[in-house]
Amino acid sequence: MTSVELGVFLPVGNGGWITSTTSPQLPATYAYNKSVTILAEEMGFDFALAMAKWRGYGGPSQHWDFTLESMSIMSGLAECTSRIGVWGTVHTMIFHPAVIAKMVAGIDEISGGRFGLNIVAGSNPADLGQMGLWQDLDHEGRYALAEEWVTVAKRLWTEERVDHDGRFYKLTDCMSNPKPKKAPPIICAGASDRGFRFTIKNCTGSFLLGSNRDDFVKTALRAKELAAEAGSDDFKTYGLFTIVPGATDKQAQERVDYYNSGVDAEALDNQTREYSMDPSLKQNTMANRFIAQGESRNSMSPAAIIGSPETIARKLADIVINGKLNGITVIVPDFIDDLKTIGIDVVQGLHDHGVQTNAYAHQHGG
């Protein structure tokens, strides 16, 4: 039996992750995300993760024109939950590590040690540039900044006073108290070999996507291969999956067809344009995934898993086992009814296919 963690990628941006006028028009409100997180906790999910996004893509759907700030919303969700992990996201380009070190300690206290941190070394020039905070660094430079950023944050979590004279940050007798009870889990979605090597050295886990089943497995195994070369046997990989369930495979596909009938081409064009502005686009694996989605006019990830709970469980189990994943993070069209389907029916199917989750154990008295 393969054991994995199970998490939900919260819809902190309006419309969730489907760029369409005919998909569920999810509100970017704290109340909705609170309901989703409490539901996930009740079903035994291990963590809820919020993205960080500063600029939407417009179009008729106003895709992501309204987004909740990640760290503040996770602070609130930490207070209203008691077991589930609450993971926030920060861009290393725009937040000083000393500021985040202090914020992490606060949310760690509120949550009782349940906070986790997702760090983003890149994004795109429009998203951060609108605030004048984009730094014109090449691919290597972004990870050099992120590595120094993590180093400073970790020192502030463990040392009483920090002096640091680096390329990007200078700290003089810097104090940061209180300390978190323990260093939070840190994940990163860098998918190039440089990104993986950064993540393996500085983080506890990698956040993975794939363009299809084989790409998912290949990417996950590459991360494990690089981790083994670095001697990081406990390095974790978390797959991010867009999932569209239906009572049958046919009904699930009909949902996808309906969402694609209302695909917001204008928003996708804006998304493509913004990511294409990156001068290091060739090395930016994540940006190229967003561009590919826009060019194909898909309302959602082309790697979306579509079908009945049994079909979804079988396909997920296949990727988890063959890709040696440690975690599953889910995106769904409707984060109440669809999340219930994942948390109950798909979790049961995963168990039947040899993939154990804490959600299954939680629901069966384990």
Automatic annotation (TrEMBL):
GO terms for biological process: alkanesulfonate catabolic process. It comes from the Bacteria. Residues 5-319 form the Luciferase-like domain. Keywords: Flavoprotein, FMN, Monooxygenase, Oxidoreductase. The keyword Kinase does not apply. This is LLM class flavin-dependent oxidoreductase. InterPro entries: Luciferase-like_dom (IPR011251), Luciferase-like_sf (IPR036661), SsuD_RutA_monooxygenase (IPR050172). GO terms for molecular function: alkanesulfonate monooxygenase activity. It holds the Pfam family Bac_luciferase. It comes from Acidisoma silvae. Gene3D superfamilies: Luciferase-like domain. SUPFAM superfamilies: Bacterial luciferase-like.
